[in-house]
Design a protein that fits this description.
The structure is a single chain. 36% of the residues lie in helices and 34% in strands. Strands 2-3-1-4 form a four-stranded antiparallel beta sheet. By secondary structure, it is of the alpha+beta class. The N and C termini lie close together (10 Å). Strand 2 and strand 3 form a beta hairpin. The chain has a single domain, classed as 2-Layer Sandwich (Alpha-Beta Plaits).
Amino acid sequence: MLSVVLYDYAEGSAAKRDELRPAHREFLDSRGDLVLSGPTAAGGAVIVYEAEPTELEAWLNDDPFWTAGTVAHRVVTEWTIGLGSWKDKLGL
């Protein structure tokens, strides 16, 4: 099962995110089921895990970005990939 996480960063949080980025990345990668992660040009991030959304959301409460308040809004939902070139590349 894939879950997609959408972060919208809090306004004025860039400096704090820069400070916390190493800990944030270490945290995200610590589960061992991270598929993809990265920032968006719209002021947020997309993160994809092979995980169940409810459990993942509870775990994300300890993300350094979340605990420091640099994430203004978060969505965690199951994601079913239907089409696309990456479907086969990722074995989905």
